[in-house]
Amino acid sequence: MKEPTAVLSVQDSPFARKLSAFVRLSQEEMEAMSDLYRRRRHFTVGSDMIHQGQKDQCAYVLASGWASSYKILPDGSRQIVDFQIPGDFLGLRSVLFRTSDHNVEPLTPVQASEVQQKDLLDVFGRTPRLATAVLWAASRDEAMVVERLVDLGRRSASVRMAHFLLELGSRLRMVGLADKTGYACPLSQYLLADALGLSAVHVNRVLRELREEGLLTFQRGRVSFDDYDGLVAHAEFDRSYLDLDGPLLG
Prior knowledge:
This protein has nine helices and ten strands.
């Protein structure tokens, strides 16, 4: 892990794009957001950024790269909870609760800005609307966890996969990294299996079925929506829980 470096502007960052989807931020609020971007760190694949059970853990704003959050169970098994993309806040609960309840591991080389509890509370105190935007984003993330529970408990493997890849595409579109044709995706079939409660063999079979039905193709690190509307219908994907209809506060 390299030493932190300064970041001069966040105007065009994925983080700013994400928060601006919930609250139309002023120039003053953008400048306050830059205080959260001051300490940039670089992480390599396999070196955990956040450690389960660690106290006084800092949080991170992901600037580039992908990561996964996961839990280690007493028997040593792992469950991936979610995947993080540029613009996501990593470890927010770890800062507010003082003890981390999960691990975060880079899946690709990552650049992230370190955020200490004092910095976060100071910025929130100075700019309540920025705090509101972060709260809205965190609430949206909680809504995704609810959908993941429905995935695991009630949806078939095919619908589960289609719903998850559509949700991921919507998240990436919010920060300018996807469109209706698809997106670059570094996730392996083993990672998808871990996150969706399937075996790697089952994931392979489901992706093949979706491809043969002309709905999507996931090959060579890219998810391509071959029939976006058909895939939405197949997954019964209602994107309203993602709250992507524009800023709620002007």
